[in-house]
Amino acid sequence: MERFRRYFDKTLNIENVKNSNQLETFGIICRYLPDPPEDFDELEFTTDFNGKNVLIGVAVELGKIKRIMLSLIDPENPDIVRGLTESQVKDLLSQ
Known about the structure:
The structure is a single chain. This protein is an alpha+beta fold. The chain has one domain (about 1-95). The chain is built from 3 helices and 5 strands, in the order H-H-E-E-E-E-E-H. It has helices spanning about 15-20, 20-25, 85-95, and strands spanning about 30, 40-50, 50-60, 65-75, 80-85. The two termini are about 15 Å apart.
């Protein structure tokens, strides 16, 4: 996850997040976008990984990115997520 460290404490560009067409070119779909985000909020995105849905959670505090989380979404109950293993994270990021 060192790869994401450069984004921490960067100001979130909400206009880029709202650009669903651009996100879709990367295979990412916005699942939850508070507009505008509260002082502390989370944004949710999904993408496909080996036929499974992955949740990308982005925690934002005062408009700055604080944390990025990657989880597998349970296909039977999309409210349940499980963290990816270290090898799954490496595979996902190599794609």
